[in-house]
Amino acid sequence: MRGYQKLTIVTAALGLVIPFIGLFLYFFINSVIGVPVLGLFLGGALLVAIAIIAINIGAIVTAFKVKNTKIVGIALIACGILLFLVIQFFAVPSLVLYVIAGVLAFRDKNLTNVKTTYSCETCGQTFDSIQDLKEHCSIAHYK
After folding, report:
1. Helix, strand or coil for residue 128?
2. Is 0.90 surpassed by the pTM of this model?
3. pLDDT tens for residues 19-34?
4. Taking the domains of the chain in order of start, what are their residue ranges?
5. Containing H/E element for 126?
6. Nearest Cα to 83, choosing from 67, 64, 101, 104?
7. SS3 for 2?
């Protein structure tokens, strides 16, 4: 697991705790009252909590499913900015952590584009996969 992925997990986990507790309390109190009266007073807060959950889950999915680290870096910085726009100054720690994770991802070397070759120690011939090298050695050098 890379550094930006670890930082994304920590940031998203911390950012998901309060909205989930808030949603739980909202639905629990509404079930006790029986009438969804809280929706009149806390409807905006409910939408903000759902937006926070969606942004944090999106950050986790982006960090682990997208292979291009440049896109991941930009997306994580965008998640931090979106959180800041949704909940303003309460999101400053998340903004800072997501920007750091985005910069780490943006600077990370994408190892999926590296071409690996394997060469035979006996004759020096190169192969694209280790399986081809094993087959070559077993056929050409060990008769």
Report:
1. coil
2. no
3. 999 889 888 888 888 7
4. 3-109, 111-143
5. strand 126-127
6. 101
7. coil
